[in-house]
Amino acid sequence: MRDLLTKLCWPILRIFETEQTPANYKPSHRVILNVVGALFWILALGSGAAALNSGQLGSLIPVVVFFSVGFVSLIIGTLGSDAAVSKIWGTK
C-alpha cells in the first residue's frame, strides 16, 4: 500500500527528495511534521465552517491554503525519506 501511495504522491515527493544523507535528522522531526500537518487540516476544517457561514467566495482561500500545507506536510511526514523531512525543516 505504501508503494502505491508513494507512486501517486511522487509529484509532491520529488520536490523534497534528495540523494544526500541528512546530518541533523531526528525522528522527532517526522513526528512534529505530522502533528503540524494535522493541525493545518484542523485549521482548514475550521476555515471551511466559517466560509460556509459567511457565504462569501473569497473566504475559501484560507481553506485551500491550510488544506494544501497540511496535505504536503502529511505526505512528506508519512511517505517521505529522512532527507525529505530534513529538507522541509531546512536542516542540512
Features:
single chain; 92 residues; mainly alpha; 5 helices
Based on DSSP secondary structure assignment, what is the total number of beta strands?
0
From the alpha-carbon coordinates, what is the Rg to the nearest angstrom? 15 Å
What is the percent of helical residues?
Answer: over 70%
Bulk shape: elongated
Structural class: mainly alpha
Low-confidence stretches: none
| Number of continuous helical runs | 5
Give the DSSP E fraction (strand runs of 2 or more residues): under 5%
Biggest β-sheet description: none
Distance between the termini: 30 Å
Q: Can you write the helix and strand succession as a string? A: HHHHH
Describe what this molecule looks like in 3D.
- By secondary structure, this protein is mostly helical.
- Helices cover 76% and strands 0% of the residues.
- The protein contains five helices and no strands.
How does the SSE layout of this entry go?
Blueprint lengths: L1 H7 L1 H7 L10 H28 L5 H20 L2 H8 L3
Quick take:
The protein is mainly α. Helices cover 76% and strands 0% of the residues.
